[in-house]
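Q: Here's a chain of 190 amino acids. Please give me its 3D structure as tokens.
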Amino acid sequence: MGNYFSMETVGISFVILALCLFLAVWTTRLFNRLIKLKALNDESWNGVLTVLKFRRDLIPNILRVAEIYVMTNESETLRNITQAHVHEQTARSVAETARAEAGMRTALAGFRTIMENYPDLKADRNMMKIQEELSGLSGLEERIEKTRRYYNATARDYNMEMDQFPANLIVRLLGFKRATYFEADEQSYK
């Protein structure tokens, strides 16, 4: 009878050990997968910030050239661009950056509208180069949209992995937090 008891104990111990080993391997694989997805998400966010920085670096040039031609009654538009520029520089989170990006697109749309009233400004060689970099041949707005979409795709993949059962039971314990989507006003890209 003692022999049977020890075989049963060994069998139970083996099952418990196998279960623990399975959980350890599964948790390690989940952790590594989430690390990979988080790294892709972070990398794609850096791509968004790089493209936005490129445009943001053009803003002082726009303001400098525009101030030469634009009348004082258009100073509100230039002030809007300046404020949007400051908001873009101070944004720290994805949500703040999305709001700042929307503000900048609105301000630049207003600027493009008033440019039509100033043929000399529109014809200025420096302004034409800036306009080309902003929206013309370089396709900057299109690049911003592409990087935003790629970032959102990596955020979606990362969040979906965290939401799946049984991963959703332990991801918070592993220290992972959901990625925030970079929401944009689709109308401004049409």
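Q: Can you summarize the key feature?
A: The mean pLDDT is 81.
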